[in-house]
Amino acid sequence: MTSHSFSVAMHIGAHKTATSHLQRSLKRASDALAEQGVRYYGPEYFRLPGHSLQALFGFRPGIKAGGAMRPADAQLALLRQNGHRLVLSEENFIGPLNQPHGRGMKHRYKSADDRLTKLSKAIGQPVDVFLAIRRPTAFINSAYCQMLLGGRVQPVAMFQRRNPLSSVDWSELIARLRAAAGVGRLVVWQYEDYGAVFSQIMAGMVGEGAASYVPPRPRYINRGLSADAVVHVLSQTDTMGEEKIARAARNMFPVEQGHAPFDGFAPEEHAIGDAAYARQLAQIAQMQGVTLLRPAPD
């Protein structure tokens, strides 16, 4: 369906790993990238009604084969616009950060490999996959705050029981992605290294020649909640809607003004999570066909 000079990159997140910062950086540079033959599409496109990747290429549940708005090759040509590199970014493609109604999640992104295989089949060629991972305790903390900001309130202890540290197993996820049919290059980096490896990420996504056209935005996009903000949210009754309460609390008790970031874990729990993270990183570093980006040595 496509020529060998054309390739596709898919940034799949994960959630809460500076995805919005990366997406906004690409979006700001999209005109310059287009002049270099690189076409970028992010959440502002894929979250329009009927514009999810599953809908565009006809493989979402409930759509029979060939039930997309237009044939796959026509859809691809529309996105490609004669470019040689198509860069897609949508963390929701591989699944939600949190389950609806605050339910638990024992295994994260369990459909990610299957969805990537279906996307590759629809496009007609392998898809290069880009994924950031994060310290498990920080990831769970951020997922909890995001749930509050989304208007669903529950005690942190309940959330942690429903979303244990064992649910954050990056090596298991990456092994599944590597084994999935249709996945080409698989590039991984740590959220903790994001700033230091940003240029490497861009070089892999848009190509060495175009990477200089994508400078990082000067600051992060989505601010987390402080400990005081979480206490405030949990103390409120539903007088204005939980989502409004959480967003108001973020402004009332901002981390940027000295309020300590929310942390629902004790030091010994962080130690357990960090030990698991170290084991996962060691396993990922040894996986064939996986590139784990590292900061350049000083």
| Global Rg | 20 Å
The CATH topology of the domain at 7-143 and 170-220 corresponds to Rossmann fold
Shape annotation: globular
CATH architecture of the domain at 7-143 and 170-220: 3-Layer(aba) Sandwich
Helix content: 40-55%
Uncertain ranges: none
Summarize model confidence as the mean pLDDT.
Answer: 92
What fraction of the residues are assigned to beta strands by DSSP?
5-15%
What is the string of helix and strand elements? EHHEHHHEHEHHHEHHHHE
Describe the structure.
The protein is built from 13 helices and 6 strands. The protein has 298 residues and is of the alpha/beta class. It has a domain at 7-143 and 170-220: Rossmann fold (3-Layer(aba) Sandwich), CATH 3.40.50. The chain has a 6-stranded parallel beta sheet, sandwiched between helices. The relative contact order is 0.16. The model has no long low-confidence stretch (mean pLDDT 92).
SSE topology sketch:
Blueprint: E1 7-11, H1 19-28, H2 30-35, E2 38-41, H3 43-46, H4 53-56, H5 72-80, E3 85-89, H6 112-123, E4 127-133, H7 136-149, H8 156-162, H9 170-179, E5 183-190, H10 194-206, H11 227-235, H12 242-252, H13 267-285, E6 290-292
Parallel strand pairs: 1-3, 1-4, 2-3, 4-5, 5-6
Helix pairs in contact: 9-13, 11-12
